[in-house]
Amino acid sequence: MSAAPAAAAVRAAEGKPDLAHSGIRIDGVTVAYDRNIVLDSLDLTVEPGEVMALLGPSGSGKTTALRAVAGFVRPVAGRVFLGDRDVTDLPPHRRGIGMVVQQYALFPHMRVDENVAFGLRARKAPKARIPEQVAEALEMTGMAGYARRYPRELSGGQQQRVAIARALAIRPGVLLLDEPLSALDARLRSGMLAELARLHRELPDVSILHVTHDQVEALTLADRIAVMDQARLRDCGTPQELYRRPRTEFTASFVGNANLLPVTVTDEGVDLAGRTLRMPTGEAAAGAGATLCIRPHLIGLGDGPNALRGEVVEIQWQGATHRLHVDIGGHRLKADLRELKQPPAIGDTVTLHFAAQDAVLLGSGVGDG
Ligand SMILES: Nc1ncnc2c1ncn2[C@@H]1O[C@H](COP(=O)(O)OP(=O)(O)OP(=O)(O)O)[C@@H](O)[C@H]1O
Q1: What are the respective helix, strand and coil percentages of the chain, to the nearest 5?
Q2: Domain edge (last residue) among 192, 227, 246
Q3: Of 110, 210, 222, 311, whose CB has the highest number of CB atoms within 10 Å?
Q4: Residue 213, ligand 1, Cβ within 6 A
Q5: CB environment 280-298: b (16+ within 10 A), e (fewer)
Q6: What distance in Å separates the CA atoms of residue 50 and residue 46, rounded to the nearest whole number?
Q7: Does the beta carbon of 22 lie inside 6 Å of ligand 1?
Q8: Measured distance CA(300)–CA(233) in Å, rounded
Q9: 86/199 same-domain check
């Protein structure tokens, strides 16, 4: 080992990671259990100071990816870099990483301040500095007034704040969050979402990898979202890119609500059950099959460009909107319509429309790369 990595390792061990060189690079990482591949050649970079959400269905490999970065699972192939350091062979406690998991994982027999100090002691941080770092971490998470309580004397949300304080106390360059809000009830969760967003603003140098299966969490907190399915990375982009211009049907359906309708490419646009819709079709050849993706809230009621007539088969009042389910030649189109003074009834024939630029064409070489 040369002097520079050795020094970095010592800094990590002391809880003083080199923030200037933080950031995560996962390079072709494969993880297998009993020859069963659960993470397949993952390539992913989290820039210094960036929040990357790992979003995907249950069992897609999100937690495994996080655990590979933390050092709790050993890849069968690939390397993990934190900044310029290859940490693949380092044990977890030498990586200078803060980690928060779903189930607070506080030590029940230790007070809040002792829980928060635990990581610092384990890393042999200078004793004199521990109280100051503990106080600072509790302050950041709004738990300064609870230092002498035991975990059992705290609510679930408060316990999770302590877990976050413990992760932050070592002043990590990298923070790993594994579904940190999923054990909280809906009201607490939205409060904690705002708290995490604030923490991120206060820690602009910390790279955060945040595992979630909650798309609202991912859309709200992340600078970029990596979409995983069946052990593989399927897509990666900013929340806006993935929401507005998804490249695959999987992303379109997983990030936000989407109508996905089978269409055939024509010379003028696409054909949906005998109706011609005018839109750019890129390189796609006439006659090719494709999928039209249009978000329910981008559909309007009444005549307009790309008008589609159909029968209302279901109507749901959702407070701010009515969701209409309309049968268009055997395909169901969902439309979220605001401020409907006189909503149509089931069985009515309605006309819906959407702007060509709001629709995305997927498949057949037209958009899904
Ligand atoms: N220790 C283990 N031994 C064997 N298989 C495992 C182990 N840990 C995870 N797996 C398997 O690896 C796959 C990926 O699991 P992982 O926990 O990474 O998924 P996930 O996307 O985080 O799912 P969830 O959202 O449910 O937490 C799953 O099929 C899981 O059963």
Answers
A1: 30, 30, 35
A2: 246
A3: 210
A4: yes
A5: ebeebeeebebbbbbbbbe
A6: 6
A7: no
A8: 34
A9: yes
Measure 79 CA to ligand 1 centroid, in angstroms: 20
Question: In a structure prediction context, what are the per-residue pLDDT tens digits for the chain, which is 369 residues long?
Answer: 333 433 443 444 444 444 445 799 999 999 999 989 999 999 999 999 999 999 999 999 999 999 999 999 999 999 999 998 999 999 998 888 988 888 768 899 999 999 999 988 887 788 888 999 999 999 988 899 999 999 999 988 889 889 999 988 888 889 999 998 887 777 778 788 888 888 888 888 899 999 998 888 888 889 999 999 999 999 999 999 999 999 999 999 889 889 999 999 998 899 998 888 988 888 888 889 999 999 999 999 999 889 999 999 999 998 889 999 999 999 999 999 997 888 899 999 999 999 999 999 998 554 443
Whether ligand 1 lies within 6 angstroms of the CB of 68 is answered as no
Q: Is the CB of residue 33 below 6 angstroms from any atom belonging to ligand 1?
A: yes
Q: Is the CB of 342 under 6 A from ligand 1?
A: no
Residue span of the structural domain in which 106 resides: 3-246
Which amino acid residue places its CA nearest to atom 1 of ligand 1?
A: 33
CA of 364 to the centre of ligand 1 (A): 33
Q: How far is CA 110 from the centre of its chain?
A: 32
- Answer yes or no: do 47 and 98 share one domain: yes
The response to whether residue 11 sits with its C-beta less than 6 Å from ligand 1 reads no
Residue in this structure with the two tokens 């800094």, named with its chain if needed: 11
Q: ipTM exceeding 0.85?
A: yes
Ligand 1 center to residue 251 CA distance, Å? 21
Whether residue 336 contacts residue 300, with contact meaning beta carbons closer than 8 Å, is answered with no
Shared-domain flag, residues 163 and 49 = yes
336 domain-assigned:
yes
Q: Select from 31, 35, 62, 229 the residue to mutate for testing ligand 1; criterion: most ligand atoms less than 8 Å from CB.
A: 62
